[in-house]
Amino acid sequence: MASTSQPPLRFTSHKNLVWRLVFSTLTGRTVQISQIRPSSPTNPGLAPHEISFLRLLDSITNGSQMEISYTGTILVYKPGLITGSASGTGANSGGVIRHELPAGCARGVSYFLIPLCLLAPFSKAPLKVLFTGPGVITSATPNGDMSVDSVRTAILPLYNQFGIFNNIELRILKRSNPGPNGRGGGGEVQLVFGHQLRLPKTLHLMNPGRITKVRGVAYAVGVSASNNARMIQTARGVLNPLVPDTYIFSDVSSAPFVPTSEKTNPSGKKKIGLGFGLSLVAESSTGCLFSADVASPPAGGEAPEDIGKRCAYQLLETISKGGCVAPAGVATMLGLMTMGSEDVGRIQVGREVIADESTIQLARDLTKFGAPGWGLRDASGENENGDVIISVVGRGIGNVGRKVA
Amino acid sequence: MVGKRKRDASVVSRATASEDEGIPQQPPVDASYQDVFRKFFEAQFQPLEEGTGGQVAGGDESEEESEDEGPEQSGSEPEWGGVSDEDDEVNEVEVVEHRDAETQALMDKQARKAFMTSKPPSSVEQTTVKRLKKDKDAEGEDNATDADNLKNDLALQRLLKESHLLDSASELAPTGKNRIKALDLRMQELGAKASLYKQNMPSSHRRGIKAKAGMKEDKRRREARENGIILEKPAPKSSSTSTKRRERGVGGPSIGKFAGGALNLSKRDVAAIQGPRRSTGGRGRGGRGRGRGGRGRGSR
């Protein structure tokens, strides 16, 4: 690729690692990330979920190289072409890439899904990835990962605004909450992203609108369904006076049954990932989505009413931040806008959203990857929240695999 | 003193529980004033009970005033006697929880199905909401929409194919001649062997039709000219088939007609081969057969 002559971009620390890798893959620039948890006495270097993400990148790309130093504190990633799950590239007969997450994984599967979805439109072939293994947590986690339901209902619809809507599916085959100590689960999730395109549409999203409806999913894994009813009851109690069109669906499933890796009983199995949680999504009249996610802590000891109430309040807080995009969707939206055609796209975000640490880090990283800086100005009109309009100039790279020679 | 006055005003407004501008800003010193207030309050809210409500509101104020400001306000004191200071100081925040969860209307199965699929919910819900309103006879409606969609699809396909026949956008269904043409197109698409317009008729008939059409056109033009009407220019006469060069297959003879294993040359072909006679040779180019031969150059 053309990037061979360019020196690698240098980053430090493990923060924002995933997005750096994603943008490296999209722009084709080699990155060197150093000082990854150098001072941690027990677990220096890359964490299991980060290694797993690298493996995932390796399986959906062709020709990417990664070198990890002996201690794991330095990573050099040279991206390849995003091929998706084309036949003969590690995908099985159905064209599905099977990605196993290790048992020690403490992050929810949305940690992998959201960046993967950003890569998928620029893949050469449709992308089908099956997340399985003893580390798949479909619920929200204490680390702040959103649940798979929120990914499906609050993140995937964002792609619609860029003209990416065909054949996108997120199948939740098996649910799981975090296991003991917040590690591991036994869920199974399949992502199908079948809409690849050359360049995403330029986005102009400057009207947040008003919240018209709230939808949600309450899930209970291996515990009584009455937990769902209690969560729904409390959440509705908070939300109903504000949005009458509130509906929360209940999903009850049995706990996953995963093999234990005990030496004494090699064929033993155990139930893992019990718990419950609530995912709420509010949609505005202009199609902006705000989501909230709370799940029961792995240690337990929290009543469903509290979860429901916290989730409803979290949703209200997210909405109160204003703008057209929730904090959870900022990286996706701005990433797609940056990868779009060489045109100025505009998006209105809340002041708190852009002042967020991760958003600022994203802006810095994108600049480092050669994207033009963002233009910021106060939103016009009646702007009591002090929203900011970000103007993003696309890089016009788009899908290298789809470039017509 | 200014500060005190301000404070008085605020107290008054709180006591009467109305933010109206029309309230006099002076502290009430007279019973008549109080009556005015009371009437105003009762007009705004509900009638006060004698001796409790009105007195309470007044007492609060007067006590504060008497404490803070001394003798000048004491004239009003006896009439205001009520709430003690404790109530004022216990500034409790009342927590109100809105709970309106009883009405979890059961969403029908369809909505649940639409939301709990693997697809990201986007426009899907729009249809379900519509369906919610009139969910009776959902099956029949579904069929109806299907049929409707099919019909619209067909109409669109036809429009795309036959739009060149429509000279104005106003009329989408072709009429008259255009209708026949559209029909012809459709029939051909469905596999008709020959066009409607390709009729097998005696050549005399065809010539007659052509002659008649030409006559009609001539007449129209003549009449228009006589009446001083300017008509469109006559369409450029399509070069008749006789003058057009015939399309020949590859490998066929470039001249003459190959039939029955022999190349038949007509007189014209022969003449073309021979080219123009010497006398005219200087003027024109050679005939077809000789084409760009050396002879043409030699004749110069």
TrEMBL record, chain A:
Alphabetical UniProt keywords: Nucleus, Ribosome biogenesis
UniProt-annotated location(s): Nucleus, Nucleolus
GO CC annotations, alphabetized: nucleolus
Domain RNA 3'-terminal phosphate cyclase insert: 207-320
Listed GO biological process terms: endonucleolytic cleavage of tricistronic rRNA transcript (SSU-rRNA, 5.8S rRNA, LSU-rRNA)
Domain (RNA 3'-terminal phosphate cyclase) ranges: 12-352
GO molecular function: RNA endonuclease activity
InterPro entries registered for this protein in UniProt: RNA3'-term_phos_cycl_insert, RNA3'_phos_cyclase_dom, RNA3'_phos_cyclase_dom_sf, RNA3'_term_phos_cyc, RNA3'_term_phos_cyc_type_2, RNA3'P_cycl/enolpyr_Trfase_a/b, RPTC_insert
Pfam families: RTC, RTC_insert
Coiled coil location: none
Domain of life from the UniProt record: Eukaryota
Family per similarity comment: Belongs to the RNA 3'-terminal cyclase family. Type 2 subfamily.
Stated name of the protein: 18S rRNA biogenesis protein
Species in which this protein is naturally found: Aspergillus heteromorphus CBS 117.55
UniProtKB/TrEMBL annotation, chain B:
InterPro entries: FSAF1-like (IPR027973), Ribosomal_biogenesis_FAF1-like (IPR053030)
Compositional bias segments (type: Low complexity): 72-83
Region (Disordered), start-end ranges: 1-151, 194-300
A Gene Ontology term for the protein's cellular component: nucleolus
Example of a GO biological process term: maturation of SSU-rRNA from tricistronic rRNA transcript (SSU-rRNA, 5.8S rRNA, LSU-rRNA)
Sequence ranges of Basic and acidic residues compositional bias: 214-226
Start-end of Basic residues biased regions: 285-300
Residue stretches of biased makeup (Acidic residues): 60-71, 84-94
Ranges of biased composition (kind: Polar residues): 119-129
Protein name: Protein FAF1
Organism: Aspergillus heteromorphus CBS 117.55
